[in-house]
Amino acid sequence: MKDLLEKMKNGDIKSLAKLISYLENNPEDRFVDELPSKGAKVIGFTGSPGAGKSSLVNAVISELRKEGFKVGVIAIDPTSPFTGGAFLGDRIRMKSHFLDDSVFIRSMGSGSSLGGLNESIFDVIKLMDAFGFDYILIETVGAGQSEVDIVYVSDIVVLVLSPGTGDEIQFLKSGIMEIGDIYVINKSDLEGADYYKSRLESILSLSDIRKPIIKTVATTGKGVKELVFEIKQLLDKFQKNGEIKKRLERRIKKHAESILVRKIQKSMEEINETENLSKLINMVIDNICKNK
Question: Could you tell me the pLDDT band of residue 167, with boundaries at 50, 70 and 90?
Fold first, then answer.
């Protein structure tokens, strides 16, 4: 383990990949808690399936690389019901960056989480931060209205929408529409994109909400430079007004809660596997009395 950590700190990407796999299989090992942060900026991309999130993330990677930034990507894919691993659909769409040493793309299964994220993501972010990535991009699976856990791991959330997918219905609901810091109307070359944007602006104005709305065509790169600019502007604003610090504290709290829940679940499984529950209870009581 120490050898892998040393190699990772020296920029060995293979050691980073091995450590991530180790963390996913050994969540009880808390060595990541000792790793120092290097200030990576965590950007979450979420939205309904078919909005073009993967293509947009791919385009954002290209724009950030033009500026010389190192980019880590966590692509949350649906979990296979057979192997428990991740389908690699999102990762395939980013294949143009596979040979770039300054880009690291990791697929993770969504697991059983209703919020669209794997519990291990907190530790993976810590590892990528310690590795030295300037930006960590997280693309969620696209679970729909319940997929709001991205707010607990991101400095900024980009909500990706697309005309003709029925997302206008989401405008009237709570949940996923409320978590976006920046709204992106992707596939804006499709008919109805302008109406879609004006509709979104009207609904946001009713709530007195002012957030950037950007039209993009991820496959051609149109609007992506503007999106990256808005992300940087918002990061700077959040850094100055203390919002980044608040979100980091929220992330730490959520991570602690997830660890506690996992331990409780493990204890419950052990109880269920015990043939004589009363015997177990008496054993626990005896241990408590001995430790008084």
Answer: low
